[in-house]
Amino acid sequence: MTPILALSTAAWLLIAGAVVVVLVALWVMGAYNGLVALQNRYENAFSQIDVQLKRRWDLIPNLVEVAKGYMAHERGTLEAVIAARNQAATAGQQAAAHPGDPQAMRALAGAEGNLAGALGRLFALAESYPDLKANQNMLALQEELTSTENKIAFARQAFNDAVTSYNTQRESFPAMIVANVAGFGPAELLVAVETPAEREVPKVKFS
Amino acid sequence: MDFFAHQDAARRKTGLLVVYFCLAVGLIVAAVYPVVALVFGARPPHLWNPILFLAVAGATLFVIAAGSLFKIVQLGSGGEVVAQMLGGRPVDPATRDLDERVLVNVVEEMAIASGVPAPSVFVLDEQGINAFAAGWSPSSAVIGVTRGAIETLNRDELQGVIAHEFSHILNGDMRLNIRLIGLLHGILLIALIGYTLLRSLGHTRRRRSRKDGGGVVAVLALGAALLVIGYLGVLFGRLIKSAVSRQREFLADASAVQFTRNPQGIAGALKKIGGLVAGSRVERAAAEEASHLFFGNVLGQNLFGSLSTHPPLPERIKRIDPAFDGQFPKVTHAQRTASDLGAGPRPAQAAAAAMGFNPETAVASVGTPQTEHVAYAAALVASLPQRLVEEVHEPLGAAAAMCGLVLAGDPQTRAAQLAILARSSSRVYEELQHITPLLGGLPAEARLPLVEMAMPALARLSPDQYGSLRQVVRRLVEADQKVSVFEYALERMVLDQLGQRFDRRPPARVKFRWIDAVAGDCDALLSTLAYVGHRDDAQAERAFRQGAVRLAAIQSELTLLPRSAATLKTFDEAVRRLAAAAPKIKKRVLEASAACIGADGRITVEEGELLRVVAELLDCPMPPLLPAAVTRPVTSG
Fold first, then answer.
1. pLDDT for B157
2. Radius of gyration of chain A from Cα atoms?
3. Is B411 exposed, middle or buried (CB count within 10 Å of its CB: 0-12, 13-18, 19+)?
């Protein structure tokens, strides 16, 4: 009898230790899984932006094609739009491969900004071509472009919300230990690109 | 067995499962105790020490309980977590990939046909043909399908597989499945602790001298023993899992045939699994843990029949297609054409038009949509403007459509509503401008199905965006000082069903087992239903009686409330309480509701919508009422 009784304090300690270890291990698993879930969420949210961006990049060559028929003299502007579109599409591919990556996000925001600028100049020039302005194809394309830009803005907001909640979790106290050990890096917001459409409508946040 | 019997059966199965599980835990405790006692120096025959036994039993139970609860809570927060664990990537409802679009359309049709909000769809990048359904309740379910399945199955076969998964959703298998994963995880944790002990000692032993070797050997032995016991426990657990799972697979196969009335579809899919090199294998490690969720065996065909979660393929095929000769076809990539996007015309559609309304059949079809419902859903989706369908597949478009559906007919209110919308969200307002013309021509009975189609896109809103949408919809509804039946239905569906996905609320537990406990709620429910469809009080009284008869076991007689007291508000409170009633009570409440609205032999769109809300809030997926049963309102509005 005595050997067991003598060791029973040790047994208790061991059991108590095991209980603590199990609780800590479960907590670490929970924190880790939580971070993974948040990461998945913002990556998935980016795919929504991606769908709409692609749609916009597909629309632009059509738009340029229609405009070409009316404003042949403005080749420089038209080529600038196509160049900016191609540049944005490349940046977009990079960003889709690594959503939240600071460099990729900034590159995409920059390229999209250039594209918006080039498009803005095209539309400004189009003002002086009444025939082009009245062209049905042009009107339909412009309308679709506005609608797509609207959707991009909305999806971007969802993405930024997801990135923010990931970053908050990553930096909040006990979870940050897990985040640092497991190498969860900070994610970058996709900053607003002022598209011509956004400049037109009054800026009101959806909240 | 009908839906309600299946729900009860699922609950009983859970009880049985708990018994098996307790048995397994008892065996584990009995196995762990002698090992620990030996390690702590006890020698036979003096192994018995009550204090040590209590400590060992307590610690073992604690580990298993903690591990199980942890996993159940983690997975219970929604089907999405399970899908992500299995490596699923959400399919954008607005996807432009043809294979994925066919999948989204098939899932949508099946959802409308069975009367549940369309589940979010996930794709697993796996070569094998497989699929799963997961979630805590039908309204928060997700469906996952492998890349191999959407690339090799034709539309009918895909429909068969999806119908099989819907059977799991509708029969309450998902909750059982999640509990099963959780319980097994708890047992697995014992093995993990043994493994960790072994590893940690492996490290220290190398560093230390041999002077305290005895203790190390003891703990080493303990680790090894725990590892072995843990894995034996897992093996035992797997036996339980397989036993529970195999029968349900046959049931789901049979239900799939019943839903689509097309045995070739599901049989074809099973044959293709047999003909494909990758079979139904899913490579991802976590798939093993969730093997009982899948359509086919994730490990490929198993030698040990009793450990296999799925019955053998040839047997499954033979039950559906008795002429099967055991020869599996050669599988090639399915040739898709644009016509795959919609279901082709089917003879069943003509039959549907002849069906009248009968409360018994309406309730009997809960959880078991018939071919007519599937055909009706497909026809309904096909009749919607293509642009509108694209819009509700996309978060902003879906949000705008929800706002657009509650816009009033009269110009003054409408202008006030648009002003509210423009102030709170310019983007949704802008988008609505594009959608309004499309919503104009929408038939009244297509409104709720449109809302259900929009669910996956709405689930992709960020929590903030969802919060704003919820608020805006409420303010738009309240703008004209009165809430119409449709507005109420939309609010309940968007707010409640979608809220379940966002707030991760578990569905209500059963609180009321006797119908007398909810008699007052039945009064309110039936009264509102009676007044909505009948302007005349005497007729309403008659309709109320028709419903009340079905609840005859109530000791206190049901009484019709005065018209002024039977508002949507009292109705709402009543339905919410009834959601916590036992399945057999829900069945009778639904039957009474159906009898009440069908008392005069015609059902208005409003009555149909209210019945829909009752079914939805009671978590009883009720297929749509077929066109012949519904009378369009004579007066506009």
1. 92
2. 27
3. exposed
Cα(B473)–Cα(B421) distance, integer angstroms: 9
State how far the Cα of A75 lies from the Cα of B125, in Å rounded to an integer. 45
Q: Is B609 a catalytic residue?
A: no
- Torsion angles phi and psi, residue A195, rounded to 5: -90, 160
Q: Quick one: which H or E segment has residue B63?
A: helix B50-76
The Cα B16–Cα B11 span in angstroms is: 9
CA distance B524 to B381: 35
Best of B122, B192, B462, B465 to disrupt the A interface by mutation (most A CBs within 10 Å)? B462
Q: Is the ipTM above a cut-off of 0.85? A: no
The share of chain A scoring above pLDDT 70, in percent, equals 88
Q: What is the pTM assigned to this prediction?
A: 0.78
Q: Rounded CA gap, B66 and B72, in Å? A: 10
Å between B425 CA and nearest CA of chain A: 5
Distances (CA, A) of B378 to B108, B174, B352, B574: 9, 26, 13, 34
Interface of A with B (CB under 8 A): 1, 3-5, 7-8, 10-12, 15, 18-19, 22-23, 26, 29-30, 33, 36-37, 40, 44-45, 47-48, 51, 143, 146-147, 150-151, 153-155, 157-158, 161-162, 165, 201-204, 206-207
Q: Closest Cα partner for B266 from B129, B142, B377, B462?
A: B129
State the Cα–Cα distance between residues B107 and B171, nearest whole angstrom.
17
Q: H helices within B479-582, ranges in order?
A: 485-491, 498-503, 519-533, 537-549, 568-578
pLDDT at B27 (0 to 100): 86
Dist. CA B559–CA B523, nearest whole Å: 6
The pLDDT tens digits of the residues spanning B142-171 come to 999 999 999 999 989 999 999 999 988 887
What pLDDT, on the 0 to 100 scale, is given for residue B247? 75
Q: Calculate the alpha carbon distances from A22 to A27, A199, B53, B195, B324 in Å.
A: 9, 56, 20, 13, 52
> Given this model, what pLDDT does residue B374 score?
83
Which alpha helices (H) appear in B40-49, and where do they start and end?
none
Write out the two tokens for B534. 């009948």
